[in-house]
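Our collaborator T.R. sent over the components below with a one-line note: 'Predict the complex.' Nothing else. No constraints on interfaces, no templates requested, no preferences about which chain binds where. So this is a plain run: every listed entity goes in together, and whatever single assembly comes back becomes the starting point for the next discussion.
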Amino acid sequence: MIRRWQSVLLDALLGIYVAVLLYRIAWLRVVLGGEAPPVWSGELVAYGIAGAIMAFLGMRLRCTPGTWLSGAALQGWREVTALHIAFAALVLTIWAGWVITRISPLELFSAQGLQSAGRLFGALLTPEVTILDKALVAMVQTIYIALMATLFGVPPALLLGFLGARNVMRRHPATFAVYAVLRVLINFTRSVEPLIWAVIFSVWVGVGPFAGMLAMTVHTVAALAKLYSEQVESVDPGLVEAVESTGAHPVQVVWFAIVPQVVLPFLAFTIYRWDSNVRMATVIGLVGGGGIGTLLMQYQGLARWHEVGLIVLVIAAVVWLMDYLSARIREALA
Amino acid sequence: MVLVELQQVRKVFPNGVVALDGISLQVQRGEFLAVIGLSGSGKSTLLRCINRLVEPTDGRVLFEGRDVTHIRGRELRQYRSQIGMVFQQFNVIERRTVLENVLVGTLGRVPVWRSLVGSFPRELVEEALQKLEIVGLAEKAFDRVRALSGGQKQRVALARALMQHPRLLLADEPVASLDPATSHSVMRYLEEVNRQLGVTIVCSLHFLSLVRRYASRVVALRTGRIVFEGSPEEITEEWFRHIYGEEAHEVDIR
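Returned assembly:
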């Protein structure tokens, strides 16, 4: 249930959104054709007016999606109008999405397109085996990049896993502040794609496996810290109480009450992380992180599809194997 | 002689629940005090206010005449180490051995680094084995706790509490997850600790038959207040309805 002022804001945003779609997509792109010109000030004013109209409709006539969402008892034509506006916005959105992504069934099924795709798939399915040794060496490099990233990532993630767990840190205002800051930091770091980290680090230390490994280490720390801390937060508080009641020091409480409960899940998370790091290392290689991804990029640039086919096969095999192994190990641990 | 004294203790949790609403109570040295009442009547909170797992919102808690209501840090840990506690869910480390669990009771007096590397002084290990003998688990010392039955786990927890050389033992519904026969066995160990070792016991219980059989005194709580205080024999049918509500009737456990 949303409040009144939130429903008005929602209506205003909806009005602006619909106006933008109608003008920039429907009018400029489709009716007039070609690329839309830069935004000009009169246009902004018009959007503002559109938003104001919708907000006014919502406030006065109470016949918009906003008022409808706020749980106001709409009846008769009001509800019908609100539903129609919502439906129109939805249809407009899907249609605009179609235009923006330039979806074109004609191209998907054109004779020429099908022919080139057929040639490509044909090449991929007849892989060039002579470069197998080269591909395997690159694959091993990728696996090691992932392994090192996981190994370097685990110790800081362990520390952050405990320092970022609410139940460990909430006792004292100072530790709680540390918890809050770490939480924001972890979430921010995690939300930055490893690919972006790879770009950052290739500027920092130069393009190559080292940059790829650093990027994955950063991502591993954030991802594992999140998983670890959630596991710490879900431990049985009874054991914590029991150890506390013996007069134990907080460090002893962590070691005797929390650690025994999280060791196995931590191991499982870590193995899973290594396995997903191998997959990620392949992708990071595409932007110069070294390993098999970089090799793939080189052959792809030369349009040597038979070689690309072999590399794809090697990646698929290794990813499948890692997936299988990590699943079995995690099963055995559970 | 008074061991623990609660003066007008109130506890309001952050979510607004009033768990204890002005409790005044004296625990005499050497007695076996049972605390009864419905679930949610404040029994657990009362016990936790005594060893300060919970900090009272109002009122005072005195232990041997010393005000411990708001102590913290090292002082609080030192205080807690003199009070043993056992729980309904046993709260033992399932993945560790019985002996390791019992040694947890010494954490309050072992240097932190020694406990972290697991090098407990030899005399403490010997003492732990001796406590296991008291609770009849000497031959299980090196088994993992996971493999034990509920009653055995509770005895491990009791041995852990005894390692603290407790002056007071708090038992929070120690037999509520056990079958009747095992319940009596665990209660008898508590009785022995009380009689032989002279440890004062405050124990919350559900079954009046257990209260009558083991306790020397009873307090009954209802919505955070004491509604009855006296000897177990004084709880009549009328009192019973008053404590547990009109719908209740007594169930026996033998």
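Summary for T.R.: DSSP finds nine helices and ten strands in chain B.
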